[in-house]
Amino acid sequence: MRQGSGFTIYLYELAWILPSIAIPVGMLAALLVTAFGAGIHVPSVAGRVDPAKLAETVPFDTPGVVQTGPLSYEVRLVGQIWVFTPNEIRVPVGSTVVFVATSRDVIHGLFIPGANVNVMLIPGQVSRVKTRFDRVGEFFIACHEYCGIAHHTMGGKVIVEPRS
Ligand code: CUA
Q1: Nearest CA to ligand 1 atom 1
Q2: Are 97 and 134 contacting, i.e. CB atoms less than 8 angstroms apart?
């Protein structure tokens, strides 16, 4: 059997070294594009609250939907075993909605498939996430952090209505 020449070995080395550079560079590029181009990022802590005093803490003392401008709304949402308050949210199509949310007891999740909302609700911590509802219809709200025996029943919906 013919032994590989020095040049062949050099080619094999290149075949391993180049992907080991190209793959991390590609991943970094994907990260930068999603973070700055597509605006996808990890939601940060938007504040702290005492979970035992939510009833006296603005804005969680009045959970619900508040209009903050033309086609812009704020949803003040509290998760607790095993309900979201509010659990039915109505906004007109094209609305920008900021969810300001927290948990009263254990860790819950706030996940709205199709609406770019996916945050954890951690007792003591305020989660803030902004999205826009561009199509009429119903969006399911799910708790996606296991929070006990009835976790699977914890849900709600966003109803996006046509503009009148
Ligand atoms: Cu709340 Cu799972």
Answers
A1: 108
A2: no
